[in-house]
Design brief:
Blueprint: H1 2-13, E1 23-25, H2 28-38, E2 45-46, H3 61-68, E3 72-75, H4 82-90, E4 96-99, E5 109-110, E6 137-138, E7 151-152, H5 159-176, H6 181-206, E8 214-218, H7 222-227, E9 231-237, H8 246-257, E10 263-265, H9 273-279, E11 285-286, H10 303-319
Length: 321
């Protein structure tokens, strides 16, 4: 009996085994960066289903349960995923929350900002210079008095933000799981190097077409256009859930007919009929559908690279046409 008692006492004296935090993410890009930082230690959960609308999504009960059990929720913020904001209010989450858009050091822009970005790429971009100054060269930014106001939440489309977030995520994971801090830091450094290489590759693809104007379906590409010095002639819809007015469509149609846009791009999850209508009677080409949230990409650590490369190659293919 005394051996059993001694064994039980020894067992209770042992420190509890450290567990890798249970992490839940909102969008494929955030999930991919987090998965790279976690590496072989664990796999984060992704809330947005494949093909789901990033702005308007309904959680399943199993996803709400995973959210309530999370040690860390990593998300862009309520401006991008209001459905998750509502869920976080309605579900008791005992863990921590990392809101990337509000993190000090994230580069931010407002909708309608027309100032050109400094065109820094990769590690040369200073992510600590967070600002609301504009950086997309948008020749149709004001849209005849219909300027889209407020903070643009599509910040993952600037790779400098993605690099910065990798370090931020590693820091938060290390705080929750200090025993694996060295691994998180090493993985984050490898992620930043990987994004830098991707950034250089995309910049070379897009440099020859930086001054060729194009129209997108909705105002989601300011970070991407600003970072790579692209010329967005306008967007058909100001927001993902906003229907464009007749006056706006007439003005944009006149711009396209006058040669102010070489390509028009539909968007996944949206009917391309309006894009086709806008191109009718002009010489503008219709490109393949863009997927800024990566909702149709197979989720995993490679999803961010895939999303960014696909955006670049799709835009380049049409503008080079």
């Amino acid at each position: 009996m005394r051996y059993i008692i001694s064994f039980l006492l020894a067992s209770t004296a042992l420190p509890a085994l450290a567990q890798v935090p249970r992490v839940v993410t909102d969008l494929p890009a955030v999930h991919a960066i987090t998965a790279q930082v976690m590496g072989d230690l664990g796999q984060p959960d992704l809330l947005l289903d494949k093909g789901g609308n990033a702005h308007n999504f309904q959680l399943r009960p199993s996803q709400a349960r995973a959210l309530s059990q999370a040690d860390l929720v990593i998300w862009i913020g309520p401006e991008m995923t209001p459905w998750l904001d509502r869920a976080l209010i309605g579900v008791t989450v005992g863990g921590e929350k990392l809101e990337l858009l509000e993190a000090e050091g994230t580069f931010r822009r407002n909708f309608g900002d027309a100032a050109q970005h400094d065109h820094a790429t990769g590690a040369d971009h200073d992510p600590t210079a967070a600002t609301d100054a504009g950086h997309a060269k948008d020749t149709h930014a004001e849209d005849a008095g219909h300027a889209h106001a407020g903070l643009d939440p599509h910040a993952w489309l600037d790779p400098a933000n993605a690099q910065y977030w990798a370090g931020l995520i590693a820091g938060e994971l290390s705080r929750l799981d200090p025993e694996n801090a060295t691994t998180y830091a090493a993985n984050a450094a490898a992620t930043q190097t990987r994004i830098s290489a991707m950034d250089t590759e995309i910049a070379a693809i897009l440099a020859p077409i930086h001054d060729k104007p194009f129209v997108v379906f909705h105002d989601a590409y300011g970070y991407f256009a600003g970072h790579y010095d692209l010329t967005v002639a306008g967007s058909i819809s100001l927001g993902d859930a906003t229907s464009p007015g007749a006056a706006r469509l007439r003005e944009l149609s006149d711009t396209i007919a006058a040669g102010g846009a070489l390509c028009l791009f539909p968007e996944s999850q949206h009917d391309p009929a309006l894009v086709t209508q806008m191109a009718t009677g002009s010489n503008a080409r219709i490109g393949a559908a863009l997927d800024p949230s990566g909702s149709l990409i197979v989720p995993g650590p490679d999803a961010y690279d895939t999303l960014m490369r696909k955006l670049a190659s799709t835009i380049a293919a049409c503008l080079n046409g």
